[in-house]
Amino acid sequence: MEEIRINKYLSDMGICSRREADRLIMEGKVLVDGRPALTGMKIRRDQVVICDGKRAAEPEKVLLAVNKPRGIVCTTSQKDRAMNIVEMVDYPVRVYPVGRLDKDSEGLIFLTNQGELVDQMMRGSHGHEKEYVVRVDRPVTGEFAGKMAAGVYLEELDVTTRPCKVRITGEREFHIILTQGLNRQIRRMCKTFGYHVRELCRIRIMNIKLGSLETGAWRKVTPEEYGQLTEMLQTENDQEG
């Protein structure tokens, strides 16, 4: 049976972070098969691990769809004093965000405790579709939409964005579907052509839609949605292999 470092095991179980696990191990609060654990040791998943008096057990697999409000951050670091998405949801099992959605934006983001799922979603070489509704400060023209769709050179990042899909949906509103996630990408793209984003909301990630989920609310991804999502990821992995 495959062995895993004990701090990663405790993190995978949703008990604590790897850093916190190392601290608990040093304090003698982690036992493996009745014996004190050692920092950096590897264990099998069938061994009995007691952490701070409680047995570590496989947690429920969680995948939440969250409608992130503006002003909430997706990082769990202490650099920004704003509330982060994990604190806002306050789910009883330890979860963390898949990807990011900047502080000034709102809409769909996933929270999960499945490290393998996160890896699959983040490493896709050709990217996964993410759809946004964008409202800007000037009338949207066909010329602007065409240039956005063709790919935009972002001087600050020294990169040209991938071609994408853009559909005008109002005088100052458009939908855009991206397959990459550069830092503040849509805002940077718009700024290149003299537009400034007033509102930005992500409404879809792959097959999962925001729908009528209220701002600040969350729901569990349905078994049907989850099945479609994992099937899409598996297909992509097979193509990359």
Descriptive notes:
Helices cover about 25% and strands about 30% of the residues. Helix 1 packs across helix 2. The two termini are about 25 Å apart. The strands form four sheets. Strands 7, 8, 9, 10, 13, 14, 15, 16 and 17 form a nine-stranded mixed sheet that branches. It has a four-stranded antiparallel sheet with strand order 3-2-5-6. It has a two-stranded antiparallel ribbon with strand order 1-4. It is an alpha+beta fold. About 25% of the residues are buried.
Question: Main traits of this protein?
Answer:
single chain; alpha+beta; 4-stranded antiparallel beta sheet; 29% strand; elongated
How is the main sheet built? Answer: 9 strands, mixed
Q: Detail the poorly predicted runs.
A: none
Task: Assign an overall shape.
Answer: elongated
Give the integer mean of the pLDDT values: 90
Radius of gyration: 21 Å
Structure summary, number of beta strands: 17
N→C terminal distance: 25 Å
- Assess the beta-strand content as a share of residues: 25-35%
Helical run tally? 7
Helix content: 25-40%
Structural class: alpha+beta
Order of helices and strands: EHHEEEEEEHEEHEHEEEEHEEEH
